[in-house]
Amino acid sequence: MAHEIEQFSDGTAAFVSARESAWHKLGTVTAEALTAEDAMRLAALDNWNVRLIGLHATELTADGATVLDVPNHRATVRTHPRTGRPETLGVVGPDYTPVQNEEHAEFLNFLADESGAHFETAGSLRNGRQVFLTMKLPQTMTIGASDNVDLYIAAFNSHDGSSAFRIVVTPVRVVCANTLRAGLRSAKSSYTVRHTSGARGRIAQARQALGLTFKYAEEFEKAAQRMLEAEMTTPMLRSVVEELWPATNEDSTRKKTNQANRWNTIRNLFEQADTQAGIRGTAWAGYNAITEYANHVAPARGASPDLKSAARAERVITGTADDLMERAFHLIAV
Prior knowledge:
By secondary structure, the chain is an alpha+beta fold.
């Protein structure tokens, strides 16, 4: 997300982090855990008043200018947090209903009150088009003797119509900050709310749905423990990788080269990486090797190392690799 965290002309940035500086080195770092009010204020997310205004098109001809209404679309507009001036964020359809940043934070604040969680990060991306807030739950899962897994709840929202309001429950391995989202059958790990007139009511429903967060954590811990106790050899891992990224004889030379490079990288993570040191040779290590590759190692488009880092970081926050990781989980789980 470097170059995508919103930065202002006064040198500040729309990002806040509790206790630890983020990898992009932007924004504010607090000494203590964040409240919802802190997160909103320090990340410059408050008082945007995201609203809809009518759209018009202007046709210029030899006879002059003709202003035309655009009846089926609206522009989303915010009050800029620094200048106070209105600013267009996107173009949306007639059924779109804004979800304010304050509602976003209030949703998570409700969960904080219920669970004892605290806010970790908040920020604005792409000049206000997307915003996010994350919070850390108080309990830590321990897989085996020493593999600690923290549980986070993150909420993402867009103000340009590009995505719904989305809440995810994310277990994170402390040693590598590796996002692991698993599709456990009886536990809810994500919830999506479209921007329509019923959005506010469905956010209330999401609160109830995410009451299953602790059930998810319990089931994830049990599943991970079973994977930790199960042996996985390199050939076994390769069979999973080949199912995730199937190859055919008709593949181009370039694709075959990419497949070979991918396998060599995942094998090295599984057999050599420090992140697998305490769990090497297990199904849990195999799963972690695949998710670490998908989120942090897989090639990313970009003209510079900074842009490639940005793309990789964005995978984690937007869940780009979720489907792949869920398929890997089901293939490896025992």
